[in-house]
Amino acid sequence: MLDGYILPKLPSQLEKALHLQKQRERDLLLSTRMPVFDKLMPNYVTASIALSFGGLLNGYDTGSIGAIVHMEQFKSSMGGMSAFITGITVSTIMLTGIIPALFAGHLADKYGRLRLIAPGAFVFGIGALLQATSTQLPQFIVGRAISGAGQGVFFGNITVYITEVAPLRSRGRLSALPQFMATTGVCIGYFACVSTTGQKSSLAWRLPYIVQVAVSAGLTLVCRFLPESPRWLALQGRGDEAQISLTRLDFDLNEARRDFLATVQEQSSLSNWQSFVLLFRRGYRPKTFLALFILSMIQLSGIDAITYYAPSLFDQAGISSTSSSLIASGVSSIAMLLVSIPGFLLADRWGRRTSAISGGLLLAGIMLLMGTLYASGAVTPRSAASWVVVVCVFLFGMIFCATWGIVGKIYASEILPGNTRAAGNSVGMACSFLTNWVVALITPVLLNASAFGAYFLFSGLALFTVGVLAIRMPETRGRSLEDIQASFRRPAQGLLSSLFRQQARTHQGAATAANDSVPALAGENQQEEIELQPTAQGTALARLPSIEAAARGLRVETS
């Protein structure tokens, strides 16, 4: 108030301009907080490594819980547990992650990737703290339920963020970081429990959860200092902020303008509900269903049975002492980690399709061999068959980490369009949590009822997955995220045309002539369907595809 008058409010546009200016100043100030890494690595690598500790949390819990429920100190604190109660205790963290994972992508599309990762990590830490301080089994299960809710919020968005900040030349390696860190976490989790088994008190199983609390707190804090995804900012129409973010991440601006800053202007900005609905519309369904299928079947391969219940599997194979089974589980996790290193480093050199199909065949064969040995009654303590089973457990984990464990999440993030990537990954992550929960719940029951039934089940599921991928999985290695969408913009192919596509490649002359007469699909940015285009009033109008886009959609691919 001045001389009896009330000062008028600033116009809304001016307020927005001032707010944007403050945001830019804040971002420029924060950009000076990462200079120590300039000579070591680009800042987009630093950001990817920092957020990949969310994968470490996931793997650490997976590796430690199987060992913890096997500890005598834990049984003394919580009482004896049946196979079903053990399954409930282990799998609760996945059950409560389903719903948060389902909606995390919608929220991330609206508020940003980092604004979901930070609170998710914080909630995970609260759950870990409850588990560390538990005196009864119900409190322990509630703690795992809370951790699961937090994990459902942050885990899928970590992969989305890394996929969006990574340049084309290193996207495969960086997108594989969360899975690599998860494998590292499994290894650390096992040996953390091995190192505490000498404790006679309940600290033997409480200390691993104290570590979880510390890592969760660190992940929550680091999100405060990282720039938001430039692709997300560009999709929100905040191009200036996207360029600031790109500068902070040491991203090549010319590459950014070529790959996505120009193309995102043509993509519609959709509401959360529209983004979800868009996932299941005609032009998007093949990509959505393939991503959901891959993320679900990765878990149904049996890897969770290996990582969660490795001590029990080794015990069943004849390694009966608690310390020996834990050490064997730890050695198995080391082997998985060592194999993950070349898989991680060579992620951009191996084809996604080749890794997925060859890896699936090997996984199915190993499960079939173990099931056959148990069904024939050949597995007895200290027998040759029991050692074959032990070796097979090692091999299964190693092959999974080198193939499906790396390829699956990368591929699911790559094939989804930018305006539905977070929503699609969240739905996929919810499916992953659901199948993970089912495996963690039923594995101890199946092993208790039939030593071989679980192995035959996982083998059959892996073979089924290979069949689907052989028919419906296009290669994405070495292609920009925008270019990948072109491989799905063509008429649906029948089974025979998919199976005999390799034979069609021999007709190079005809293919070359066809390619010369019809423009290539690479680099197309238009959707072959009606899209929702928002108006200034906030309503969505239908936008028809151009005649040129429709004509391109009629092209018959021969390669």
Automatic annotation (TrEMBL):
One GO cellular component term: membrane
Q: Where is the Major facilitator superfamily (MFS) profile domain?
A: 47-477
Q: Which InterPro entries match?
A: MFS_dom, MFS_sugar_transport-like, MFS_Sugar_Transporters, MFS_trans_sf, Sugar/inositol_transpt, Sugar_transporter_CS
What Pfam families does the database record attribute to this sequence? Sugar_tr
GO molecular function: any one?
carbohydrate:proton symporter activity
**Which keywords does this chain's UniProt record carry?**
Membrane, Transmembrane, Transmembrane helix, Transport
Q: What's its membrane topology? A: Multi-pass membrane protein
Cellular localization per UniProt: Membrane
Q: Does the keyword Cytoplasm apply?
A: no
Keyword Transmembrane helix included in the entry's annotation: yes
Name the domain of life.
Eukaryota
What residues form the membrane-spanning segments?
A: 40-60, 80-104, 116-134, 140-162, 174-197, 289-310, 326-347, 359-379, 385-407, 427-446, 452-471
| PANTHER family registered for this protein in UniProt | PLASTIDIC GLUCOSE TRANSPORTER 4
Q: Which family does it belong to?
A: Belongs to the major facilitator superfamily. Sugar transporter (TC 2.A.1.1) family.
Q: What is this protein called?
A: Major facilitator superfamily (MFS) profile domain-containing protein
